[in-house]
Design a protein that fits this description.
Number of strands of chain B: 11
Shape of chain B: globular
Distance between the termini of chain A: 41 Å
Structural class of chain A: mainly beta
Number of domains of chain B: 1
Oligomer: heterodimer
Number of helices of chain A: 0
CATH topology of chain B: Immunoglobulin-like
Number of domains of chain A: 1
CATH architecture of chain B: Sandwich
Structural class of chain B: mainly beta
CATH architecture of chain A: Sandwich
Order of helices and strands of chain A: EEEEEEEEEEEE
Number of helices of chain B: 0
Shape of chain A: globular
Largest sheet of chain A: 6 strands, mixed
Chain lengths: 116, 113
């Protein structure tokens, strides 16, 4: 069965540290890839997405992600984190085409805590 | 306001009672979803709907019922609430163009005592 793996369930960093959150998926077909963020007490918001073109995708708040097809990965990065980045981050993959076999697969999430 | 609304935002109910969580979207998106979010489990899909009158089970459908008589509404009913259904419930819809981004409602925090 298709799946999405987020390797780190909890990450604790100091402000200004660099961040990389891993995301790997298992699906051999065409996919669209997403990173969502959930700030404490809030609902999920889209951070960035990839569906075609440049595999290096830039999102909001200085985040970026790189799609490496050969590694089935879509890792999230930020060069210098801030205390306000404390949140839970979810990787998600949609399988294509969007027909009766369509699936949206979620990773288990990574809780990121930034120490001031 | 455009978007997805959920009601109620908070609900406390007793074991055995029937509870309905409401979800309304203003975009006329075809696909809608119900998730529950629990510590250690991330998001788990309960039910989804591809269009009005078309629904299908997700990963954890037991104990839940959905309906979709109108495109914009997708209520979720717990027929006989159990403590294990204490959770935060999110409704979502999908934009019908690539990359099929999901939009989420604000969530309903349900406590079953």
């Amino acid at each position: 069965a298709q799946s999405v793996s987020q390797h780190n369930h909890h990450v604790i960093l100091s402000e200004a540290a660099s961040l990389e959150l891993g995301c790997n998926y298992s699906y051999g077909g065409t996919v669209n890839l997403f990173w969502y963020v959930q700030y404490p007490g809030q609902h999920l918001q889209l951070l960035l997405k990839y569906f075609s073109g440049d595999p290096l995708v830039k999102g909001i708040k200085g985040f970026e992600a790189e799609f490496i097809k050969s590694k089935f990965s879509f890792n999230l990065r930020k060069p210098s984190v801030q205390w306000s980045d404390t949140a839970e981050y979810f990787c998600a993959v949609t399988t294509l085409p969007m027909d009766s076999n369509y699936q949206l697969i979620w990773g288990a999430g990574t809780k990121l805590i930034i120490k001031p | 306001d455009a978007g997805i609304t959920q009601s109620p935002r908070y609900k406390i109910t007793e074991t055995g009672r029937q509870v309905t969580l409401m979800c309304h979207q203003t975009w006329s998106h075809s696909y809608m979803f119900w998730y529950r979010q629990d510590l250690g489990h991330g998001l788990r899909l309960i039910y989804y709907s591809a269009a009005a009158d078309i629904t299908d089970k997700g990963e954890v459908p037991d104990g839940y019922v959905v309906s979709r008589s109108k495109t914009e509404n997708f209520p979720l009913t717990l027929e006989s609430a159990t403590r294990s259904q204490t959770s935060v419930y999110f409704c979502a819809s999908i934009e019908p163009l690539e990359p099929y981004e999901q939009y989420f409602g604000p969530g309903t925090r349900l406590t079953v005592t």
